[in-house]
Amino acid sequence: MSLSASALRGGRLLCACPADGGSTRRAETRLVAVLGLGFGLSALSQALAAGLLPLAALRMVDGPWLLLPSALMLVGIAVASLPAALLVDHLGRREGLALGAAFGAAGGGLVALGITETIYSMVLVGAFWLGLAQGFGLFYRHLAAAVAGRIGGVRAVGLVVGGGAIAGIAGPTLAGAAEALSFPYLYAGSALLAAAAHVATIAVVALMPPTVWRVDEGAPDAASATGTTGTGRRIAAATALASGAWLIMAGSMAAAPLGMAGCGIATGGIVGAMAWHVVAMYAPALVAGPLADRVGPLTIAAAGLLAALAGAGIGIHATTGAGFGLALGLVGAGWSFATVGATAVVAGLSRGRLALHDAAVAGGALAGVAIAAFAA
C-alpha cells in the first residue's frame, strides 16, 4: 500500500489510505447534499433579512437611512469574504462555516432585540453581523465546485445553489408563524427566525466530514471538473457579469418592498412577492448547471445578466402585485444563471482569489442598494 505524502500534511485530518471509488463517490454525493441543505438555510436567513430590514427601518427612520441596514448587511458580506476564505481553508469547512453561522444567529437575535426596543443602532449592528454570516455562506457553492470531479462538474454547483429554493418555498409560512408568535412586535419574529436558521445551519455543517479540502493524488481539480479554463479574461468577464447581476438583484430586493408598500400592496402580498423572488433566485440553478455544461458557463452568465436587466426595466414601471412579481422573477432567475455560470468559471482558483471574486460581487450588491437608497 502506498501513501500520498500530500495527504499527510500537518494539520489535516484525512484518510491516508487509497480511496475506494464507490465509497468516494457516495461521500462526495452526501457532501453536496449537506452543502445544499446548509446553503438553503443560509438563503432562508438572507431572504428574511432582505425583506424585514427595510420594513423594520421604515418604522424608525425615513429618507435614505431606510436602506442603511440592507447596505450594512452587504458590507458585512464583503468584509467577511477574505477572512471566510482563510478560515474555511485553515480551520476546516465544518469549523469555518459554523463560525459564520454563529455570527448570523447572534445578528438575527440583535435585530429582533433592536426592533422590540426600537433601538436603530442595534438593528444596524445586527444587520452587519447577518452580512458576515452571508459572507461565509457564499463558500457553500465554492466547496461544491471543489468536490465536483466525480459528481458531474457544474451540476454540483447547481444542486447546491438550487437548495436555496427551500427559502422561497418554506419562508412565507415560517415567517407568518413567527410573526404571529412575536405579536405585537412586527418583524421581530422574522428576525428571530433568521437567527434560528443559522442555528440549524450549525447542526447541518456538523454532518460534514472534518477535512479541509480534498487532498487526493490523481483526482481531477475543480477547474477541469467544471470544464473551465481559468484564463484572466474569462475570470474577469465572469466576475463582471456576476457583479452586474448582484447589483440588480440587491437593488431590486431593497427597493421592491418599499415600492410595493407605496403602491398600496398589503404585507401579505409583499411577503408573497419576495418569496417568489427567492424561489426564482435559486430553483433555476438546477437547470443552469446542465445548461452550462452544454453551452458554456460564460454564456449562461451573460444570459442571466440580460434577464436581470429585463426584470429591472419592468420593475421600474410596476404598480401592481403581478408586475412586481414578474420583475422579481426575472431578476431572480437572471441572478441564478449569472451566479452558477460565474462560479463554474472561477472554480479552481486559490481561496484568496475566490475571496476577491466574492468581494467584487458583494461590492456590486452594495452599489445596487446605494442606487436604490438615493432613488427612494
TrEMBL record:
- Organism listed in the record: Methylobrevis albus
Membrane recorded as keyword: yes
InterPro entries, A to Z = MFS_trans_sf (IPR036259)
Residues annotated as transmembrane: 31-53, 65-88, 95-113, 119-140, 152-173, 185-207, 264-283, 295-318, 324-347, 354-375
Q: Does the keyword GTP-binding apply?
A: no
Q: Which UniProt keywords apply?
A: Membrane, Transmembrane, Transmembrane helix
What protein am I looking at? Answer: MFS transporter
